Amino acid sequence: MPTEEQKADALKYATETGGFPPLALWSMPQFTPAMVKLFTDKEKLVNSYPMTYITNPEKEIIYAVVSAANNCEMCLSFHAMGMGQTLSPEDCKLIVDGGLPTQNERARTIAIAAKYAICHKGLLLEREAAHLASMGVSKEMYGEILFLCGQIHASTCVAIKFRGASRIMASAPSTRRQLDRALDSLVDFHTGQQHAHGLPDPAGSRCRGDAPGRRALRDDGLRE
Predict the structure, then answer these.
(1) In the prediction, which pLDDT does 184 show?
(2) 3-state secondary structure (DSSP) of residue 200
(3) CA 166 to CA 179: how far, in whole Å?
(4) What residue ranges of the chain have pLDDT lower than 70?
(5) How many domains does the chain fold into?
(6) Which of 8, 132, 139, 191 lies at a CB distance of 3.0 to 4.6 Å from 204, suitable for a disulfide?
(7) By three-state DSSP, how is residue 194 classified?
(8) CB neighbours of 180 closer than 8 A, spacing ≥ 6?
(9) Chain CA centroid to CA 118, Å
(10) Range of the domain at 15
(11) Per-residue model confidence (pLDDT) at position 161
(12) 207-212 long-range contacts, Cβ below 8 Å, gap at least 24?
């Protein structure tokens, strides 16, 4: 078992070396001293490491998209501040609420790619890959977005693991519906076909349930 001295040393490392505030998070059971230091070093490395396609400020967009999907309010508070350095308050609010920005096309493209990545666990259907390509997202760029989604997903999962499960799950359906609506209202560049309620049909004559594990879309654009 970690000693109190080790715990205090880890907290000092997170705050003084990592620049984190003295969060109550660090006292949760899952954050052993080793985990606190690993988490701190990982955040410093990933957030400062220069990528080829995604800038450091753009990483905050991806982190906010994932945090919104995972219902992690604490993570959202940090990443909303990060996005606020480059995006308008309106676009920040849309992303935090689980939607897509409307005033910054580059941010919108990145948010769409991140939503595809987390909704499908990294896998893309052919039409989805074509959609991203039509917006200028290459396989290489998507690879960076997918990696950034995956690492921040791990962070938010650890952060919320020991929070009240009932409170997290109570808000989960709402966020899932927001995510589904955002995905299923993307412009259909293949066929232009519409759902019964006027939402563009990303699948044309096929529903999103055409792949194993995918649920079919209802008429209102949500998954069954």
Answers:
(1) 47
(2) strand
(3) 20
(4) 161-224
(5) 2
(6) 191
(7) strand
(8) 119, 221, 222, 223
(9) 7
(10) 1-49
(11) 62
(12) 208/184, 210/125, 211/125
Residue 141 lies in a domain: no
The 10s digit of each residue's pLDDT in 98-121 is 999 999 999 999 999 999 999 888
- The answer as to whether 187 is a domain residue is yes
Distances (CA, A) of 184 to 65, 122, 199, 205, 206: 16, 17, 7, 14, 13
Residues 6 or more apart whose CB falls under 8 angstroms from that of 37 comprise 10, 13, 14
User: Could you tell me if residue 68 is inside a domain?
Assistant: no
Is 40 part of a structural domain of the chain?
yes
In angstroms, the first-to-last Cα distance of the chain is: 46
Write the CB contacts of 205 (distance below 8 Å, at least 6 apart in sequence). Answer: 191, 193
Rounded to two decimals, what is the model's pTM?
Answer: 0.72
pLDDT of 119: 85
- Per-residue b or e along 13-23, where b marks 16 or more CB atoms closer than 10 Å to that residue's CB: bbeeebebeee
